[in-house]
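For this section, I looked closely at the sequence of one protein beside the tokens encoding its backbone, which the following lines show:
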Amino acid sequence: MIRPATLDDAVGLRAAVIAAYAPFVAKGIGLPPVADWLDDDIRDHHVWVAEDRGIILGGIVLVMNGKQAHIANLAVHPMGEGQGLGRRLIDTANAAALTAGCTQTDLTTHKDMTETQAFYARLGWVETGRDGDKVTFALDLY
């Protein structure tokens, strides 16, 4: 089930985010500590969690500014992989962005997270730029 996050979800979401990024960290990919700000994200932005029988398996953070929406974080715990949770979380965020009048969603990933880049490309996202370790993707909303 995909649902809006509450502050009570912060611990479970933090665990899911850390587990989702652990394989990349183990490869030596330097990632920012995105799990550190989840309380603030839940309070200040739009956050949804993917939950199964009370266990948070992933989440997405959407930041909206005018007609632009930005996915600040998307993570799925390895236990939730292969269930379509990433796609469903993105669809939920994009639907909210579209309802709010946004015309495009963007996101940034790491240049060495090639599996993640391939995932976004399969969903129709278009790479729009590279800057150092960052790769930016965008999706027009209709």
About this structure: The chain has one domain: 2-140. The chain has a mean pLDDT of 93.
